[in-house]
Amino acid sequence: MPYAVELGLDDRAAAVVRRLWHDLEDAGIVYMARSGARPHVSIGIWDSLDRDAAAAELTRFAAETTPLPITLASVGFFPQVAIFLAPTVTSALLDLQAGLHARLSRVGAAPWEHYRPGAWVPHCTLATDFTAEQFPRALEIARRVALPVACRLVEIGIVEFRPVKQLVSRVLGGP
User: Fold this and answer.
1) pLDDT averaged over the chain?
2) Count of structural domains, the chain
3) How far is CA 167 from the centre of its chain?
């Protein structure tokens, strides 16, 4: 199973995302609400990862990295794949993602191409695993959010997925 490294949203922003997940679930688009995932921005996915070495690296990274303010500024989608909230892209966000990739390159194998620095599109997934017929309704629900949503990325973690299983979680700026 692949491994994702995710940046967790602060509680207020996470509540906004969870509310949208539940509205989508009520419309029959259930994956995110039932997945066990936490509201997040994925910054990398690897097919394999030395879990112990990655956890140690994340612990060091989290201690050195302060929470990052971001703004969820728009609704976007990857055709036939996902609907998401897109943060405003900043140099701080891109630098954080590139720095983490450089650090994990020693402990991860087969990084997914569309998550590599320079190709990555930052996003917070609202809906995935929907049919073409469900897409307009999912987009309508996603557009209910009052944008922009100012928030902070406050933790970093590793999940194994499908099914989602949280393996590591570290607070940014923590011990």
Assistant:
1) 96
2) 1
3) 15
